[in-house]
Sequence to fold (713 residues):
Amino acid sequence: MSDAFTAIPAAVLRNLADKLYEKRKNAALEVEGIVKQLTVAGDHDKISAVIKLLVHEFTYSSQANHRKGGLIGLAAATVGLSSEASQHLEQIVPPVINSFGDQDSRVRYYACEALYNIAKVVRGDFIVFFNQIFDALCKLSADSDPNVQRAAHLLDRLVKDIVTESDQFSIEEFIPLLRERMNVLNPYVRQFLVGWITVLDSVPDIDMLGFLPDFLDGLFNMLSDSSHEIRQQADSALSEFLQEIKNSPSVDYGRMAEILVQRASSPDEFTRWTAITWINEFIKLGGDQLVPYYADMLGAILPCIADKEEKIRVVARETNEELLAIKADPAEGFDVGAILSIVKRQLSSEYEATRIESLHWISTLLNRHRTEVLSFLNDIFDTLLKALSDSSDQVVLLVLEVHACIAEDQYNFRQLIVFLVHKFQTDKVLLEKRGALIIRRLCVLIDAERVYRELSTILEQEADLDFASTMVQALNLILLTSTELSGLRDLLKQSLVDAAGKDLFLSLYASWSHSSMAILSLCLLAQAYQHASSVIQSLTEEDINVRFFIQLDKLINLLETPIFAYLRLQLLEPGRYIWLLKALYGLLMLLPQQSAAFKILRTRLKTVPSYSFDHKGQVNRTSSANPSIHFSDDGNGNMNMHNGIDFAFWLQRFQQIQQKHHAHFKSQARSNNTSTHTSKVKEVQKPEEFKGPPAPELSRPPSRLSRRGPGQV
Fold:
């Protein structure tokens, strides 16, 4: 240190700490000249002593003017050293960088000025301090003093020039620092960072693309900045990188795909659009590299399909189609289970478009990788069943297609029908609102007869009698009204003459027996008119209630539709179809006279001619118009056995099932009465018990209709 004091006059040292800039500047020029002489003399020890003096006595001083003088002195010493400065940079640069954090803004300003002058002298030799200088400049770019910001900006431009022409710059050492700074929110810092990324990317010898995954997330984060300029700069940088990716033979798509997936769900519209655009390009370019990331990418695409912004929806749909078109193989890393997990989650999306595309994915996977999909069936089956309750008809139709595809083999078909019945049982609203749509569509997609046979088998064993009755009534109405089931109706019409028709009739009979009106409809459809009449005659007081009349009303109205046109035409031959007449008159006798159904049926029966047209076109007089008509066996399907069907046995079967319903109804009534007696909350009026002759009410019609004349109820 004493060598330094002898080398630099005391007056120079005093002026170097003066409050006036001019005196400090002149003193610095003196220091420059002294160091230049020592350099020529090769006295580096004394030079080191001078630098040490400037550092410890000035730059680290508690006096601001001393620190200012020390900084300008270090810059002057570097200028004096000229080409010899590199061997003293370890002493010179650190204290200058340290001054960037000084509390005095003027000191920070002079630190920028000093390092600028030092950099001009040493150029590429100070690259070894690049990370520390970059870190300091990053902070100074957001300095509170605009003068310091301007000085830092000038220094930054010089450093960029030096880095772009240097072959000593280490991108590997710089990237961790850049990655750390990318999450800073300050707009000045963000501009500073994007500027550096752009400059470094422009240098041919620096492979910024190879390190893009390290700072890609930060660039995407800037797309939602409040400053338009920053958003524009970040977008420009990203566009340039995307172009480079398209032209590069080797890109790490995997790491970047993970970032894009996250950014595709950003609340910022521009960020989402950019992310989904990148994903679109990645799917086109990535090839096998992206196979393990397909599930995650799909998870990003599906929500965007229903985005509120049209341009995002357009790109998302295109991207989804691109991904769907790729026929990846599980042997190549394609994870069917992961894809199914994603679409299962998206089936709960609030957006219809997303749910629809999710179902398209399941359908596609079933077609391509059926075995793999079925191995995950337990994971998705419940979700697919819940989708049947979806508010969108299109979603319901698509999920039915998926179910139909799953049900191609017998086991899964059986499981589907079992679960579907259970779903209807637990969700009465679904049965009421969507039951017909679901059953009709399944009959089209699978096979109407197969579906109805399986439903019948399940309902025959159903313990919940109320549900069984409701379900059978729903199925019966679908059978009688749906155009999709016309083939099934045609087959049933052949029940008395064809083995296939008979087999179907008998397969439905047991379960249809849960509803007396359903069994009557089945008999009319099968043209088993004598049996229909026998069923009507077997009805008891307990069978005839409000629900019975509601169903009977529907049946009477259905008899006037084209579906039962064949039956109405048969009335032209009352002599031949005498049991049909008896069955219809039986129904008429059950109806209240003031009901619309009574009037409809009576009007129809009045049109029955008093003569019969036979198959030869001859007219035969009959007594069908006579109120005291006599019905007899004419050998046309009116015996207990016909086409091998033991109608007496099946009538007994019907009565047994109805007896179970009667017992169940009585049990419920007793339970309700008990509950009424034990309730202390409020008194509930009990319905009056049946005593004596029944009143002619809708819910309690007379049971002995055979004792009344025609036209009376």
Summary: The CA atoms of residues 36 and 408 lie 94 Å apart. The first strand starts at residue 611 and ends at 613. The radius of gyration is 46 Å.
